[in-house]
Amino acid sequence: MRKSVGALIGLFSLAAGALGAFAETSVNQPTPPAAVIVLGADGVFRAEIVVDSYSYKPDHLIVTVGHPVELALKSVTIIVPHNFVIKAPELGVEVRQAVPAGKTVTVQFTPTGAGKTEFYCDKKLLFFKSHKEKGMVGTLEVREAPVN
Question: Which domain holds residue 20?
Answer without folding.
Answer: 1-30
